[in-house]
Amino acid sequence: xxxxxxxxxxxxxxxxxxxxxxxxxxxxxxxxxxxxxxxxxxxxxxxxxxxxxxxxxxxxxxxxxxxxxxxxxxxxxxxxxxxxxxxxxxxxxxxxxxxxxxxxxxxxxxxxxxxxxxxxxxxxxxxxxxxxxxxxxxxxxxxxxxxxxxxxxxxxxxxxxxxxxxxxxxxxx
Length: 173
Description:
This protein is α+β, with helices and mostly antiparallel strands and 173 residues long. It has 4 helices and 10 strands. The strands form 3 sheets. Strands 1, 2, 3, 4, 5 and 10 form a 6-stranded antiparallel sheet that branches. A two-stranded antiparallel ribbon has the order 6-7. A two-stranded antiparallel ribbon has the order 8-9.
């Protein structure tokens, strides 16, 4: 049930997977996010394939960005996303930037800037990651990323670095 309050904000969530049928993981996570109370999907990007940021001895990632309207406070939304990761077999703390079934990042929460031990928003790597910026720009064209500037400028200054859009029937491999 998506009962949004009058204080709802637009949040952007990065989705990534490179294990156990990544395209299916992303699609399943999208459904799980849509099923959350006080969350309503506004937009969903194309799926993209990207090379891993960390160790290169792992499969390519499938990435997407989802725009949602939410009445959940930022930490409640983060905890809900982490619960979805766990439901999808995510194991935390094994290896930084290692392979994973599902990674959900709270990229932006309205125009808020949050820095706590548990959450940093905007996501600290947002301005350099093609696999975030290009799908994000599909969801919203006119956006100022707090502390980083206009999204259109960030995209212009970020090389694709091997990022490629997947067609509807394609996997990342």
